[in-house]
Amino acid sequence: MPDTTTTRTWQLTPHTLATIDDQIDQDGIYAKGYWEFVDGKNTVTGLRIGTGETRVVARFGDWITRHPNGRYTVHEQPQPDA
Question: Where on the tree of life does the source sit, at the highest rank (predicted)?
């Protein structure tokens, strides 16, 4: 069983998606790719964590934090000024 007594943080990128997804699944939390319509086609743009009203979505560049109580939060990547 994974150690969920400590805080863990990851930055979500296309390269780290599978590793983070696997780790969250090992913690017993449902996770899967998050798809959006981009440039005329469905594209994975992040990771959906959890189900129902408590689910959170992280997009590439965001930071995902697993808290000792088993809760996940997402800290969005700052957006450049327009």
Answer: Bacteria
Sign of the alpha-carbon dihedral angle for 52, 56, 60, 65: negative
pTM greater than the 0.70 cutoff: yes
Query: Which H/E stretch holds residue 36?
Result: strand 31-38
Tens-place pLDDT, residues 5-51 = 789 999 999 999 999 999 999 999 999 999 999 999 999 999 999 99
Which residues does residue 32 pair with via DSSP β-bridges, in sequence order? 48
- Closest listed residue to residue 76, CA positions, set 8, 22, 32, 64: 64
CA atoms within 13 A on the CB side of 45: 10
CB 17 within 8 A of CB 33: yes
